[in-house]
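TA notes. Do not distribute before section.
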Amino acid sequence: MANSTITNFHIPRWSELPNLDLYLDQTVTILEKYLKDYIGNKDETIITKTMINNYVKQGLIKPPKKKKYSKVHIATLFVICILKQIYSINDISELMKLAIKTARFTKAYDEFCSALEKAILYTFNGIEYSIPKDISFEESLLTSVAQSFANKLYVEKTFLHK
């Protein structure tokens, strides 16, 4: 994959997510559409219906209403799909709890997207991505989480050619 494709990595912000609740198949489709070029091998499935059902059972996401998944579900699943590449489900749960304890869900989600895109852009362009000294612990942690995914993606795409 060309670096230009990677540096154009984009996760839909809160305002870009569907305003209508989606069925499980539609939810899987939207996640695959945005993430398939960046996570795992091309032949790998990023998320399945079974995985989503397990996340509900584990309490990572709330049960769907009338078998439909809301914007909150979809945003949470984007975060889970990305972070499960480097963290355990328990770790992801703890990171998400901290994020929504310190900011509104929509703000926390958009900040996650921005931090991740910035980390990927910087990493693939060889720009140092340092953590500013004057930010909160939570902002520093978010920066570190984003950078850890960007580093993993960089190794996979430039060396391992996944």
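Switch to the second chain here.
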Amino acid sequence: MNQPPALTDRKQLDRQRARAATNPALFLQEDAAFEIHERLLEVNRPFTRTAIVTPFPSVWQNIRPDATFVSDTDRLDLEVGAFDLVIHAMSLHWANDPVGQLIQCRRALRPDGMCIVAAFGGQTLSELRSAMAEAEIAITGGISPRVAPMGEIRDLGGLLQRAGFALPVADGATKTVTYRDALHLMRDLRAMGEGNALNARRKQPMSRRLFDETAKRYHAAFGTNDGRIPATFETIFLTGWAPDESQQKPLRPGSAKTRLADALETTETPLPKF
């Protein structure tokens, strides 16, 4: 059976991340790490062995210095059943097989171990994607892949179930960052290691005319009163547990021994029959 083409040009992605490491702008990675740290403080259990899947281990060094750091390659370097906490940090959108990434994380967990995923959501860079698509259609009559696909919260939450996690939870938050213009936004994206590394991308650099048209349309559609432009970044957090017999299980439908109306001390109103 023929394998589908890879989403990501891994060599290009590695080059971009290496360039970003020399003068990084990792505030989104740092925000996600801080949020995960805060969530872990609310979990009433110690974690004795942690693995973190991340392209930027330096972000986590002060938060979980004892962790095992793993690159987000297609085959994760995770020992099966070795960890009670696995964190997958801000790189799922570059995965050729997102479900496969989560399955590998689950297999690396001990029974009742916890996995937390931080991933970019579908609202990320919505303004840039809209302005760039309009500009490219106006200039070339078509569009080419320029921004990695990012899932909606419901779709990403469903990945946890497909990967076999118990007690799956998904939630998210958006952050709006303002920039002087589209050029400064794109410079920040390069400093995040988030340039275009799609396998199907056009290999030629973005033309000056296309950039100018994108910047003009971006400002016209989204510019603020002070002359700046907003950029939306959505971060989705997924939490799941490796299955274990000790975990709570939902009751079988119809197995209740007490009527809800009795518990609420109210009168039950039957629904009409059709």
